[in-house]
Amino acid sequence: MIRGVGVWTLVQRGWAEQAARVLLRVEHGLRALALGQAAREAGLTVLEMQIIRLVAGGAITKQVTVLLYLSPHTISTHLRHAFTELRISSRIELTRLVVGHEAACHN
After folding, report:
1. Exposure class string for 78-105: b at 16+ Cβ within 10 A, else e
2. Model pTM greater than 0.70?
3. Gap between the Cα atoms of 17 and 74, Å rounded
4. Among 4, 18, 51, 95, which one is least packed by beta carbons within 10 Å?
5. Which is more confident, 21 or 9?
6. Per-residue pLDDT tens over the stretch 46-65
């Protein structure tokens, strides 16, 4: 036992830390769900959403190809379709859209 700290305090801290981790995972999941809902409303597929998240997170096409085991042409095709459906024309706009959506869901 740590001097001056009772067992109950240690248990409480452990539960608080665990609860905080669970809440962060739930919050992240809810933001992803909200973004996923917006993507479905825009007519995007699950694969297009995965690509969008990676690209908005700063990944270049070559990194996405390695992560998802797809060709660069396939990545470009999915990005073009997503850009058309979301009415955007660049990766910068995509990042702003995703970050803005996540910020709106976070508030």
Report:
1. bbeebbeebeeeebeebbebbeebbeeb
2. no
3. 42
4. 4
5. 21
6. 889 889 888 888 888 999 88
Q: Give the CATH number, domain containing residue 93.
A: 1.10.10.10
Rounded CA-CA distance 102/31 in Å is 6
Query: In whole angstroms, how large is the CA radius of gyration of the chain?
Result: 20
User: What's the residue count for the chain?
Assistant: 107
Q: Which range in 2-6, 54-58, 98-102 is most confidently predicted, on average pLDDT?
A: 54-58
Q: Residue 11 gets which letter from DSSP? A: H
49 contacts: CB under 8 Å, gap ≥ 6: 35, 36, 39
Examine residue 2 and state whether it is found in any structural domain, yes or no.
no
In the chain, the number of structural domains is 1
- Domain membership of residue 24 (yes or no) is yes
Inter-CA distances, 77 with 10, 74, 80, 81, 96, Å: 53, 5, 5, 6, 21
